[in-house]
Amino acid sequence: MNKSIPDFLVVGAAKSGTTSLITDMRKHPEIFTPGIEVNYFSHYYDKGPGWYTAIFKEPGKIQGEKSTSYLFYPVCHERIFNHNPEIKLIILLREPVKRAFSNWTMRYVQHRLLYQAHIFNQQYPNKIENIGFSQLFHHFLSCYSSPCYNNEPLDVFSRGLYINQIESLLQFFKREQILILISENYFRNPVETLSKVSQFLNVDDFPNNQLSWKRKMEYPKKLDESVVSEIHHFYKPYNERLFDFLGFEIPAWKR
Questions:
Q1: Predicted pLDDT of residue 2
Q2: Selection from 12, 10, 152 nearest residue 72 by Cα
Q3: d(CA 34, CA 47)
């Protein structure tokens, strides 16, 4: 087994443009990535390293994959390190309120929220009675001091606690192994973001015509502005810790 495979992972965050990013990366002639979200270290770890490394079929290229579950689940961090301690990790972060609403909307459209709430209610006494975005956030707050706040569907909000997830990764990986990108910058200037990716992976620049593909989805529900300020207030201390870690603020995240 070659422990150096893969060379990199795009680990998250979910609903932050990671599909667009990996699609751009797939077009680079020096990079190979499978066309699926593998989720090996989170959901399919029992299949073993042989199954995983067999997915990477271009040994002459820089190889990697994108699975957003890897950032959120701490168990993945040690598993990734044990598999390849020299791996490079790419994180794409989106303003957490908009990310949460996008995540909630996707699950709403896919009819997953009711099922997730049903499973949650079977496991915990603090029952979810309403899966609306603002109602779910208030239920998340009521569970915040207990382990259930990380469970589906409340993870719609806990996935935005980025600094906690980054600090967990840093228990295993050196800072220079992690590239943190900001979604709003990527959407505004994909060429600049892809230049950072090419430098991080030590490959040639991306061709100038390889601009970002982005999924467009019409939201069937509008973001309730009455709860936006409340959710921003909740995320503010976590964002401030993230800004301190990065060494700069993100203007698009400020209100």
A1: 46
A2: 12
A3: 17
Which domains does the chain show, CATH number per domain? 1-117+157-255 (3.40.50.300)
Q: Is the pLDDT of residue 27 over 70?
A: yes
8-12: strand order across its sheet: 31-32, 62-66, 8-12, 88-93, 178-182
HEC letters along 35-87:
CCCCCHHHHCHHHHHHHHHCCCCCCCCEEEEECCHHHHCHHHHHHHHHHCCCC
3-state secondary structure of 28: coil
pLDDT score at 26: 93
pLDDT tens readout for residues 181-213: 999 999 999 999 999 999 999 999 998 765 555
User: How many CB atoms are closer than 10 A to CB 9?
Assistant: 25
How far does Cα 46 stand from its chain's mean position? 22
Q: Shortest CA distance to 112 belongs to which of 162, 155, 160, 75?
A: 155
Q: Do the Cβ atoms of 20 and 212 come closer than 8 Å? A: yes
Helix (H) or strand (E) holding 107: helix 96-109
Would the pLDDT of 102 be above 80? yes
**Confidence band for 215, pLDDT divided at 50, 70 and 90:** low
